[in-house]
Amino acid sequence: MKKFSVADPIVVGFAILITVVCATAGPSSRRSKITFTGSIRVPGATLSAGTYYFSTPSPDARTLVRVENENRELVAQFMGLSDYRRESGHTVIIIFGDHECGPKAIKSWFYAGGSSGIRFVYSEQEAALIAASCNEPVPETHDKEMDASNLQSSSVYLMTPQKQEEAYKSEALSASDQVDQNGYNADPR
Fold it and tell me: How far apart are CA 186 and CA 26, in angstroms?
């Protein structure tokens, strides 16, 4: 018959803790590998044709989105807001308007096979250009540099097609979201 020591419950408890941490660490980080055949705009940068990795450390109401090139070099980092769609789909990147609409810009990035994702927040100048060209409202912020220190304190507004700044209301985006279905597929990575 085996004798139990005082250390046995500690070892079992530690093993359970490691299992829980490992099981919950993966899903909180989202990553997609996306290849573009032409240039496309993200907040703060225009990506030329090529392969990029989109990632976010956590799918919170506000999050940082990182875009890296194939060499894993940071290309852009910007604010994103929680976004949802009614049906999950294979299209991971949704662009504003149709493919002929002004500057081809990414509206939202959805996790592969899911209905939740991230709506991109553009600078005031970028938002005005996209909103007027594509005739739909665009989330915007006045902060030029985005990092973890100012993410939660940054104000978010809505730029209208008439280039008027309004208070941000996610429901104001519903009508244009019903129409915009153009986008790109991606490999989950």
Answer: 19
